[in-house]
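This protein record is not my work; I was only asked to verify it. Where you disagree with what is written, explain briefly why. This is what I was given:
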Amino acid sequence: MPAYSQALQEGVRGSYSGAVESVHPDWFKQSFLVFEEDVQEATAAGKRVLIYVYQNGCPYCDALINHNMAQRDIETKLRQHFDVIALNMWGDRSIESVTGQSFTEKTFARAIGVTYTPTLLFLSESGQVVLRLNGYVPPRQFRLALDYVAGHKEQEYSFQDYLASVQPPPGSGELRTEPYFMTPPYRLAERARETGPARPLLVLFEQQQCPDCEQFHEHVLGAAETRVLLEQFDVVQLDMWADTPLQTPSGEASTARQWARSLAIAYAPSLVLFDHQGQEVIRADAQFKRFHTQSILDYVISGAYHNEPEFQRYLQARAERLLEQGVNVDIWH
C-alpha cells in the first residue's frame, strides 16, 4: 500500500519542517513607525528607507538575513545607504504611513498587498516606492537592487533596463525545455479556440546561461508533485530578452522582451499565472522552492483565489490540510 494511502487510513499526521527563526541585526533602525519622520531622518543622513516585511518562521527571510545581509559588502552597503525598518506582516504595532494614514503592521501589509515574505520596499526622499522586491532573491541580484536604489538610478532607468545595462543578457545559449511547454506561435488570447475550453495559463520567463533557471527546472519543475499540477495548465516558456513574437492574453501583439518589460519582470525564472479568461491571478518573481511553487500553482488551479485573496493565509491552510492527510510538509524544500 502506498505510504500516502496508509497514512490516510491510519490517521497519521504528517511532519512539518523548514521553518527557521532568525534574529534581526542590531543595526536595523529602532523606528517609532512614523514613516514620514523615518524618511526625513534618513534623508538628512544621506540615506534612504528600506522597509523589510517578514514573518516568524520564514526560511526565505532567514536566507535574506543570514545569507545575503551577513555578507560583509552587503552589510556595509546597507548600513551606509539605508535605514532598514523591519515589520512583521502579522504584527500589531501601530504604523503611520508617509501619507499620515494609521495602520497596524498586519493591516499595512494587507494594504500594500504583501503576497510573499520577505517583501522589501525601497523609499525615495519623498516617501515614494522606487523599487519593490516581492520575495527572496540571491545575493548577486540583491546587490544590484541595492546599487540601483543607493545610486538613485531610478531617475535614469527602470530596474529591468538597469539590469540590462550592468549585466547584459547572454548572447548565446539555449533555454532548458520541458515536453509540456507550448510551441509557437504563441497566440495566448486564442487558446480556447485551439484546444477546447481554456485552461489556466502559466508563463515562465527565463534567460540563457541562468543557473537559477537550471536549478528551478531540476529541483522544482522536475518534482513529480509539480508535474501533476502543471498538467492542468497551458505552460509557455519565454526568453525575457528575446524578440519572440507573441499575442498576450489580452490580445495585444508583442514580443517576449516587450511583454517582460511591460510586466516589470526583473528576475529569472519568473512565473506569471493567468486564469482561463486571461486575467493575471498571481506571479512569482523571486526564488521559490518546491512547496511554495506548488502552492502557487494549486492556488490558481483550485480557484482558491476567488475566496481567499491573501496568499499567505491560503498557504497556511494548505499546509495544515496536507499535514492532516498525513503528508510531510517541508517549506524549505
User: Anything to note?
Assistant: The first helix runs from residue 3 to 10. The CA atoms of residues 4 and 84 lie 45 Å apart. The radius of gyration is 21 Å. Residues 17-166 form a domain with the Glutaredoxin fold (CATH 3.40.30.10).
